[in-house]
Every structure is written in structure tokens, then in C-alpha cells.
Write a structure and sequence with these properties.
The two termini are 16 Å apart. The chain has a single domain, classed as TIM Barrel. It is an alpha/beta fold and 247 residues long. Strand 7, helix 10 and strand 8 form a beta-alpha-beta unit. The chain has an eight-stranded parallel beta barrel, surrounded by seven helices. Helix 1 runs parallel beside helix 11 and helix 7 runs parallel beside helix 8. The structure holds phosphoenolpyruvate. Phosphoenolpyruvate (PEP) binds next to strand 8. It is found in: Cytoplasm. It comes from Sphingobium amiense. One of its GO terms (cellular component) is cytosol. Its main location: cytoplasm. Involved in the gluconeogenesis. Catalyzes stereospecifically the conversion of dihydroxyacetone phosphate (DHAP) to D-glyceraldehyde-3-phosphate (G3P).
Length: 247
């Protein structure tokens, strides 16, 4: 099954114009690895300037509103982000599910809004440590995925990122067996909704403390089609080995 690897950095609330030199360097690494699709999801303030210096990397946003316009002070619509230069958007990141109270329904609506304006979506799901320890991770995360999956989800515009919450920014990752098993469970959940043929084409990324030391092992797993990378995507020196591992 020829799924092109997808490696995406999430800069979160990091980055000023001075950091665009790093972005440019990452764009050059992307150009050296055309077999891998590489992107950076930037803070909104950098999307426009970043788009002009992105090289072979795509630029994405980290969130969008579900409506096209309106009285939503401080929010940005998918259409605005797209016009600024973002071709992808992250939806359902745990930092927004947890801190902003975003529901599965919100995430489905945001993902659909992004698709309507021609953007692609990385839909994030993941379990807490309590759920993992209780042995319920696959059941809970599969349910979360199905509940936040937008209508008409398809592989040409939607990727899934499995991000165990307890692995984000902590330096801890699940065992390779646990990652492999979760990704297989998520593909089966997708198949139950969109059919096995379409589910087989959807890229399922791993996210949570991915780095140059663990990326090759993670991406060698059958259903791991790339990574969503936080901390290690802030510098070209740390992000490059992950992109290389995907090639
Ligand atoms: C993330 O927040 O999407 C993430 C994967 O972060 P980190 O790589 O820093 O764990």
C-alpha cells in the first residue's frame, strides 16, 4: 500500500520572524527528501511570511474556527488561514481539547470547515495516562476518532495523528507494540466508517516525543505513516533526522 510518509512539525506558540531561517532550512531538507511530504504548522502570525520562505515544505495552521466569518473575537476561519498561505490545519490537538474544552463535535465541524475551503486536515486523537493504565486506550481512542471524524472524510484530505497525551513533550513514548496495535485499531475503526479501501489509504501519524533516535523504529511499523512533531520540529538540526528516517 503506497502511502507517502507525512512528517509535520507543530510549532505551537513558538516562533518569531527571526525563526524563519530555521523554517527555510527545513524547507531545504524537505527538498532533499521528495519521497516524504513535509510541513510546518505555524503560529498564525508567521503563516504569511513563512509561506514565502517554505521551500519544499507546506505550511499549515494549528487550529481554525468552524464558521466562515462572524462575531468571534480573536478567532480565525479556515478561509482566512488558507488565504494567508496555510494548506493544512491541525484539528483536535489535545492541548486544545483539554485547555479549550473542544469537543469531538467541534473538531468534526472544524475539520469539515477546513475541507470546504480546500485545506487538508490532521485530526488528532489520544488517550490520558489513566486510560492507558486502565487498559482501555484502543477502545477510547477509536471511539474518539469516530466521534470527531467529519462527514465525507477521505484519504486525499484527511490524515489522523495518534498522540498519547502523556507522551507529548515528556520524552516518554509507548512501546513499539503498543503503537503498532493502536495504529491497526485506528485503521480498523476508519474502515468501519469509510470502508476498508479508503481506510487503507489514510495516513496515520504518530506524535508524542518523536525524535531522531526513535523516529526510524516508529516509522518502520506497518501502520505508522509519519509523525506529528512538536519540540523537535523547532530546529532544522533536530527535525532533519526525523525527515530522513521517513525516507
Ligand atoms: C505535539 O504536541 O503535537 C507533539 C507531538 O509534541 P512533542 O513532539 O514535543 O511531544
Amino acid at each position: 500500500m503506497g502511502r507517502r510518509k507525512l512528517v509535520v512539525g507543530n510549532w505551537k506558540m513558538n516562533g518569531m520572524r527571526a525563526h524563519l531561517d530555521e523554517l527555510e532550512a527545513i524547507g531545504r531538507v524537505a527538498a532533499a527528501h521528495p519521497a516524504v511530504e513535509v510541513g510546518l504548522c505555524l503560529p498564525a502570525t508567521l503563516i504569511m511570511a513563512g509561506s514565502e520562505r517554505r521551500g519544499a515544505a507546506f505550511i499549515g495552521a494549528q487550529n481554525c474556527h468552524m464558521d466562515i466569518s462572524g462575531a468571534y473575537t480573536g478567532s480565525l476561519s479556515a478561509e482566512m488561514l488558507c488565504e494567508a498561505g496555510a494548506s493544512w490545519v491541525i484539528t483536535g490537538h489535545s492541548e486544545r481539547r483539554e485547555a479549550r474544552g473542544e469537543t469531538n463535535e467541534d473538531i468534526a465541524a472544524k475539520s469539515a470547515a477546513a475541507h470546504r475551503v480546500g485545506m487538508k486536515v490532521i485530526l488528532c486523537v489520544g488517550e490520558t495516562i489513566e486510560v492507558r493504565d486502565a487498559g482501555r486506550a484502543e477502545e477510547v481512542v477509536s471511539d474518539q476518532l469516530l466521534a470527531s471524524l467529519p462527514e465525507g472524510a477521505a484519504a486525499d484530505w484527511l490524515a489522523v495523528a495518534y498522540e498519547p497525551i502523556w507522551a507529548i513533550g515528556t520524552g516518554r513514548i509507548p512501546t513499539m507494540e503498543a503503537v503498532a496495535s493502536m495504529h491497526a485499531a485506528l485503521r480498523a475503526a476508519l474502515a468501519s466508517r469509510i470502508g476498508a479501501d479508503e481506510a487503507a489509504k489514510v495516513r496515520i501519524l504518530y506524535g508524542g516525543s518523536m525524535n531522531g533516535d526513535n523516529a526510524a523504529d516508529l516509522m518502520a511499523l506497518a501502520d505508522v505513516d509519519g509523525g506529528l512533531v512538536g519540540g523537535a520540529s523547532l530546529s532544522a538540526a533536530k527535525f532533519a533526522p526525523i525527515i530522513e528516517a521517513a525516507d
